[in-house]
Structures are given as C-alpha cells and as structure tokens.
C-alpha cells in the first residue's frame, strides 16, 4: 500500500474527527470516576449513621410512589447495611429524577432533577454533545472514523511498534513539532490496544443508543402505568438469595406497565469481572411475589457474553480503583493523539507554504533594471 496515500487517509480521518475524539477522550477519563464524584457531591445524605435495623426496600418504594405516582421506578443502589442511603432513579418519557432515601424509614432525603447532576451532564456531553439525536449520530460516525484512524496508524507505524515498546527508539523533544511527533507515535503505540477496545465498545454502545432513540421517537414509549405492588420487596430479596445463594441482587426495576414483572438484576459469583454487573436477572410476580422467570449469563451463547463485556470494558467498571486509574490515564490518549496530530498537520502545512514561497521568490541580481529602480527609489 502506498505510504503517502495511507498517511493521507490517517491524517484526514484524524483531522475531521479530531475535535470529537478530544471531547470523548477527556469526558471519558472523567466518567471513569462518575460514581465517586457524584457520591462525593451528595455525601451529606448518602452516608447515614450505622443502624442495627434492617434495610427496608418496601418503605423506600412506598415513599417514592406517594410523592411520584405513575413513574417508572428503579432502585439503583441497595445497601447491605443501613449505613448508606438507598438510591433510586425514576423515569418518564420526557424526564428523569434521582432520589436518595433513608435505608430504614424510606424517607426521601434528596430529590434531584437528573439534568442538574454532574454525572448526567458529563454523560450527555460524552454521548451526544448536548445535541440530542444529531450529536449521537456525529459521535457514532466519529467513533467509526477513530477506529479507521487507529488501523491506518497501526499500519503506518507497524515497523516501529517493537522498538517503541522496548524503548529502542529514543524520544527527541527538540521543538514543538518533534515533541508532538514523538508523543503521537509513542502514545499511539502504547495505547493502541486500549484505544481499539474503548473505540469498538464505544461504537457498539452508540449504535444501541441511536437505535433506542429512533425507536423512542416513533411513539413506542408509553407513559408509565405501574400496577399496585402487593408483594413485599424485602421478602422478594430474601427469596432470591435463598434460591440463588451466588446471586447478588443490586438493582431492582419495578413494573412500569400492568403486564410487567418485578425484576432483580445482579452479578453471579461465577461471572467474570468484565461481565456487566446487571447481566443476570430474576423476575417475580408483583402480586404474589413468586418467581416467574430467571436469566443467567453463564447459560448464554458467546455473542451474549461479548455484549455483556461492552460496558465494563468501555468505562473500566470491572477491576477496582487501580483499573479505574489506568483507564483515566489511558483515556487521555485519544485527546493527546488528537492534539499532537493537529500540531503535526499545522507544522507540515506551514513548511509547505514556506517552501512554496521560496520557489516563487526570485531575488534580483546586481546590475539589473529592477535593482537599479530599487536603488533609485531609496535615494534622497
């Protein structure tokens, strides 16, 4: 393949998608710690005095439906002990709210519009540039272009990969152009696998988001019409833990329509760390509290496992604080590649213009008419 043609493709892909890659890289590095940041902001209500009384999801749900009837209710954080708040998210087609509830009494401690939270603002910028469906499509296209840019960059630098990884190529930071070039090559090589993983998983997530947006715009999302819940949520939790001791329920979705079930999502001990934490679920009848259905990722085909890996691999929600720190640092790589790539392009364009100006400039020789005229105009 022609080297100049490949470099041209790599250059234009990077330039066109560069600003969006920059935004996605910076916001992605921050979103690795979105839970920690949000919990720090809301720390005055999240962490409650320890209590020997049991956590009560029934009290929490009762408080929610009294204040917000006819909402799609999801209990997103279920504490094991009554030392932190229960967290819930309630939805309607046009809005969402975050609730923090006392773990024992169920009292609503804080009720927030989701759009006012830091994590939602950052997620919206990361996923749609605060531009709705148009932003989602732009970022989807930019993600595809970034993948192509990584592939062409790999081909272009393929002979230098081993030398960079073994430090046989010594960086030369003489000026802005050489520094940008060295950083672009070094960061591109060292972060290649990470960038490919996050770019591919990001494109998959964006495809799901775009498809969901298209479906929701065709009127297929009805207003919530939840049925009366006669079953005890606390009893349901006890039942599922007795029936499936290795299942750890951490998310409860209440039925939003009369024909829906109570669904408990969670993680199994047999799952890999990179499985999505809500890959498994057990469903219960909202009236009787009896189990109606169960789904476990370990019994599913390989394609379902790969889809389950998507979100954790993209956001680093699978290996503790060390993995999150690494994701945060490596997440800056796309932004750095975007900036250094732009600088390299600008410097090359400047050199081309300078070379072109030199070719067009023809200095006058001594004794020519032009030289004489110039001398005459300078005489007093």
TrEMBL record:
Membrane-crossing segments per the record: 12-33, 133-157, 187-210, 321-345
Location of region: Disordered? 352-380
Q: What are the UniProt keywords, alphabetically?
A: Membrane, Transmembrane, Transmembrane helix
UniProt feature, compositional bias: Basic and acidic residues: 371-380
Q: Which portions of this protein are annotated as coiled-coil regions?
A: none
The answer to whether the entry has keyword Transmembrane helix is yes
Could you tell me the superkingdom of the organism this chain comes from? Answer: Bacteria
| Keyword Transmembrane annotated | yes
Bias class Basic residues marks the residues at 352-362
The leader peptide range reads none
Protein name in the entry:
PepSY domain-containing protein
Q: Which organism is it from?
A: Fodinibius salicampi
